[in-house]
UniProtKB/TrEMBL annotation:
Residue ranges annotated for the Bacteriophage phiJL001 Gp84 C-terminal domain, each copy included: 230-275
Xref: InterPro entries: Phage_phiJL001_Gp84_C
Record Pfam families: Phage_BR0599
The organism of origin for this protein: Acinetobacter tandoii
Official protein name in the record: DUF2163 domain-containing protein
Length: 284
C-alpha cells in the first residue's frame, strides 16, 4: 500500500459495516472495505485522554454492508442504543496503524448538508468518566442476567417466531421445545424420538424482559406468551424471524425469590426504614 488509506469498521451486535475513504474498494485482512465518497473525520488529538475523541461524518446515503443492512437505521430512533463500536485504521506503506478504537456515543444529523455525524469516544475516555457507584437502596441494583445477578439468559430464554409487528407492539408464537426429565435429559416417546411440547406463559411473564436478535438485546416493556411491547424499535426485526425472549424482573426481593429462586444473590436492602433515623431519632 503506497498511498495513505483510512478504513472504518463499525459493529452493532452481529452486524458489521466496513467503509473506506479511498476511491476504490480496499481489501485488508480478507475484509472488503467499501468506498464512501464524502467520508471524513475530525483530528484525533492524543495528548490527553479527554481529548482523544473524534467525529466521523457520512453522507446520508444508503450505507449498506454486504448483507444489505443500512447503518443509518441503527441511529434513527429517538432513544439511541449506544452499542455501536468503531475502529479506524490507517494503511501506509504496507503498515497498519490503529488510529481510534472505541464506541459511538451520539449521532448528529444535518439535513441541510445531508450528512450523519457520529461522535466517537475511546475506551480510555469511557473508563476515565466519573460514574455512580452502587447505592444503598431497597430494590436490587443488579441488571437481570448480568454477572452479579447470576441468572443465565440461555437457560431462561426460549425461541419464538414473530407473526406481526405494529409500531413497538409485536406478536409471536412460542416454538416447541423438547420435554426434559428431572435430570435435564430429553424424554423419548415409544419410537425413541424426543418428545416436544409448546409451553404457555402467563400475562406479565415477559414484563421488563429481553429480546435477542443478531447479538443485540432489546428491553420488553410488557409481554406474555403471545406478544410484547418493545421499549424501542429493534433494527432489522421482521415478521417470520425466530428470536429469543426471556422474562424480566422488577428488582424486588419478592419477584427475585418467587419467580427466579435467586434471592441469595439479591443485592438490595428491602428493610431500609422509611425515615432516616439520624434525623428522626435522638441518639444519646
Amino acid at each position: 500500500m503506497k498511498t495513505r488509506v483510512e478504513l472504518y469498521q463499525l459493529k452493532h451486535g452481529d452486524k458489521t459495516w466496513n467503509f473506506t475513504s479511498a476511491r476504490k474498494t480496499v481489501v485488508h485482512n480478507s475484509i472488503e472495505y467499501l468506498p464512501v465518497r464524502g467520508l471524513q473525520r475530525t483530528v484525533i488529538e492524543d495528548e490527553s485522554i479527554d481529548k482523544c475523541d473524534t467525529e466521523v461524518t457520512f453522507p446520508q446515503m444508503n450505507l449498506l454492508n454486504a448483507d444489505g443492512d443500512d447503518l443509518k437505521a441503527v441511529f434513527i430512533n429517538k432513544i439511541f442504543y449506544g452499542g455501536v463500536t468503531i475502529t479506524i485504521l490507517e494503511l501506509l506503506n504496507n503498515q497498519t496503524l490503529v488510529l481510534h478504537k472505541g464506541r459511538v456515543t451520539q449521532p448528529k444529523f444535518d439535513e441541510s448538508a445531508d450528512t450523519m455525524t457520529l461522535v466517537c469516544e475511546t475506551g480510555e475516555s469511557f473508563l476515565n468518566r466519573n460514574i455512580l457507584t452502587r447505592k444503598f437502596q431497597a430494590t436490587c441494583p443488579n441488571s437481570i442476567y448480568d454477572r452479579f445477578c447470576g441468572l443465565s439468559f440461555d437457560e431462561w430464554s426460549f425461541d419464538v417466531t414473530i407473526t406481526a409487528i405494529s409500531g413497538l407492539n409485536i406478536s409471536f408464537t412460542v416454538n416447541p421445545t423438547q420435554v426434559l426429565d428431572e435430570n435435564g435429559d430429553p424424554v423419548l416417546d415409544e419410537f425413541d424420538q424426543p418428545m416436544m411440547e409448546t409451553k404457555t406463559y402467563a400475562a406479565g411473564y415477559l414484563d421488563l424482559g429481553l429480546l435477542l436478535k443478531d447479538g443485540v438485546h432489546t428491553l420488553l416493556h410488557t409481554g406474555s406468551g403471545t406478544g410484547a411491547k418493545l421499549y424501542r424499535q429493534h433494527v432489522g426485526l421482521t415478521v417470520g424471524d425466530v428470536v429469543r425472549v426471556a422474562p424480566g424482573c422488577d428488582q424486588s426481593l419478592k419477584m427475585c425469590h418467587e419467580k427466579f429462586a435467586n434471592n441469595l444473590r439479591f443485592a438490595g436492602h428491602p428493610f431500609i426504614p422509611n425515615s432516616n433515623p439520624i434525623y428522626t431519632q435522638l441518639i444519646k
